[in-house]
Each structure stands twice: as structure tokens, then as C-alpha cells.
Design a protein that fits this description.
- The chain is 49% helix and 16% strand.
- The protein is built from 13 helices and ten strands.
- The strands form two sheets. A six-stranded mixed sheet has the order 2-3-1-4-5-6, sandwiched between helices. It has a four-stranded parallel sheet with strand order 8-7-9-10, with helices on both faces.
- Strand 9, helix 8 and strand 10 form a beta-alpha-beta unit.
- It is elongated.
- The chain starts with a helix and ends with a helix.
């Protein structure tokens, strides 16, 4: 995904560069960046307050200003509801004078916000959601899918698991865009590697009881139970799989989106031997360790790939505004006129 991130940055710089013809000033004398996050639900631990902290840290490290104007971070909880996310994005762009939305946690909410941003020619960059649709058919001239997507997760974890002998799979899948796409991408990877998919079960978002789905997985006799979910759904499924004795009976769990926080929450006993894919790891090298220590001092937890992605996108966006000499997007005539007043 490093290659994707590099392309994303170059594209973002081109967008802002195109905007330089529109205005040489900052609208309202403030650069506002918005974050639509899950602040209270099943993804709050892996995005939520931690992503907000990463955004504020990025602004602080940039100096708090760009083109002489202060940078303001605004945050809202979308409660994992697409209609709430879309309404808030529309409000921010129409009356809140938000210049760009630099993360939207969860795929269904992100897809809704991308549609709003497209109609208003506004920038939206996403480090929290994973649906590959955001990378491909739902991509717009003003959107960037950053950090990871379901294709990257499935290709790496799926192929590596089959290579280790896990050649028959049963999926427990979150029943919305992200889960469907993650299962599809993982299934294609497993089959391409010579494995087979024996079945799947769709679990509603925020499922508390996974017993019926785990019984189906157990009955399938698949060597691998692929968990195409995330956040609280993932940790609940792993905990209950351990209680059911799935791994003790020889089945292996494959987490297709696993965050560092999940491993700490579950403990090594529940996650021992599980393969996972990440776009960022805090203990990778001296540079990541130094930055993660500063983040830890503020948050009390090490950052994951989505939170590191937020920090990166904020810094890149502010650099792009600085290079372009404006926070207006190409064709944003109303924005440009207001900036010139």
C-alpha cells in the first residue's frame, strides 16, 4: 500500500495545484479540516478519539497555521449511520465552512460522504474505511483512499494463510459494504492460491452474540475461519470463538482487518499465531518508534495504521494548501470569491 499512498499524495497535490488559479487567499481566514468518526461505537477504539488526537498532533507539528491562517480541526460522531454522515458533511460544506474532510471512519458512511463531496467539489481523504470500492469505482476527482483497502488486506493475509496450509475457508462477515468486499476479495485470493471456500455467514453490524455463526463455521469443517469484520465485531467474534474451542479443535482464525488495539484487547492467548496485515506498525523502525512515542505521550496508546494515516493526510493536505497558495478547490468559484473579499 506504500505505492497507493504515494500516488494518493501526488494526486492530492495536483488537485490543490489546480485550485491556485481560483484564489490566492484562504477562505474565511481559517483552514478548517473535518473528521467524521465513530466516537462512541464499535470502531471508536481504532479510529475515534485516537484519530482526532492524531489530527491535532499533525496541525501542532505543522505550526498551527498555513498561509498565515490558523488551522481548525472539527470533529463529529456519525454513529455509524450513513445518513447522519452525509447530512453532517453537507452541513459542514454548506454552512460550516469546512474546506476538506480528512477521514470518515467505516465504509458505508465514507461512501455516503464521498457522494456529497463530489457534488460540492470538495476534498475527502479516508484512512479509516476499507471498502475497495472507494479505491475503484466510487473514486472521484476530489477523493483519496489512503492507508489500506480490502484488496490489500485480503491479498496478503489470504495468500499467506493458504501458503501455510489453510486451504479451506468459511467466512463470518459483517453484513455491509466493507464486510462484503473483504469477503469477496479474500475468497478470490484463496481460490487463486489453490484453496476453496466452503461457505459464509453474514452477521449484522454490532453483533453481540456470534454463537450461531461460529456453529456454522464449526460445522463446515473448514481449516480456516475468516473474520471479515473489524473493531468490536472482530474482538467479540475472536473471544467467543475461543470460548467455543474452535482453535482447540484444529480450526484457525484469520483476522482480515486487525488493529494493534485489538491484539492488546484480546491478549496473546486468543491471538497467538494469527496472521494480520497492516499499512503501518509503530515498532517498524527508529522513525516510527519516535513518532509513536510522542503520540503515546498524548493518548496513552500506540497508534494504528488508520490513526497514523490521519496524521499523514493532515500534514500532506496542509503542505498542498501551502504550495497552492489557497484552500479553494478547482472550479470552486463561490469559495474563491469569498476568499477574495
Amino acid at each position: 500500500m506504500v505505492r497507493h499512498a504515494g500516488v494518493a499524495l501526488a494526486t492530492a497535490l495536483l488537485w490543490i495545484g489546480c485550485a491556485s488559479a481560483q484564489s490566492g487567499k484562504v477562505s474565511d481566514n481559517v483552514v478548517r479540516v473535518g473528521f467524521l468518526l465513530d466516537m462512541s461505537g464499535l470502531y471508536a477504539d481504532v479510529t475515534g478519539p485516537g484519530s482526532e488526537a492524531a489530527a491535532r498532533m499533525a496541525v501542532e507539528d505543522f505550526g498551527g497555521k498555513v498561509l498565515g491562517a490558523p488551522v481548525e480541526v472539527v470533529v463529529a460522531d456519525h454513529f455509524n449511520k450513513a445518513d447522519v454522515a452525509a447530512a453532517k458533511a453537507r452541513e459542514w460544506f454548506d454552512t460550516g465552512r469546512v474546506d476538506a474532510i480528512l477521514d470518515v471512519a467505516a465504509s458505508a458512511t465514507a461512501l455516503a460522504v464521498v457522494d456529497v463531496a463530489k457534488t460540492k467539489n470538495k476534498i475527502v481523504v479516508m484512512s479509516g474505511p476499507g471498502a475497495v470500492r472507494l479505491t475503484n469505482e466510487a473514486c472521484t476527482p476530489t477523493s483519496v483512499h489512503y492507508a489500506y483497502d480490502t484488496y490489500a488486506l485480503a491479498r496478503t493475509t489470504g495468500a499467506a494463510t493458504v501458503k501455510q496450509g489453510g486451504d479451506s475457508w468459511f467466512f463470518i462477515t459483517a453484513d455491509y459494504a466493507f464486510g462484503h468486499e473483504l469477503e469477496r476479495d479474500a475468497s478470490e485470493t484463496v481460490k487463486a492460491a489453490g484453496g476453496k471456500v466452503l461457505g459464509s455467514a453474514k452477521a449484522p453490524l454490532s453483533t453481540a452474540d456470534f454463537s450461531s455463526y461460529l456453529l456454522q463455521a464449526q460445522g463446515s469443517k473448514a481449516k480456516v475461519v475468516g473474520l471479515a469484520n473489524a473493531g468490536g465485531d472482530f474482538t467479540n467474534a475472536v473471544k467467543q470463538a475461543s470460548e467455543f474451542g474452535l482453535t482447540q479443535r484444529g480450526q484457525k482464525l484469520a483476522g482480515l482487518l486487525v488493529y494493534d488495539q485489538d491484539v492488546h484487547s484480546l491478549g496473546l492467548k486468543a491471538t497467538q499465531g494469527m496472521l494480520l496485515t497492516s499499512g503501518f506498525y509503530w515498532d517498524l523502525n527508529d522513525e516510527t518508534r519516535a513518532w509513536a512515542k510522542r503520540y503515546f505521550d498524548k493518548v496513552g496508546k500506540m497508534p494504528n495504521m488508520s490513526q497514523a494515516g490521519v496524521y499523514s493526510t493532515v500534514r500532506h493536505y496542509l503542505k498542498a494548501v501551502q504550495m497552492a497558495g489557497t484552500d479553494a478547490t478547482a472550479g470552486d468559484e463561490g469559495h474563491a470569491r469569498h476568499a477574495n473579499q
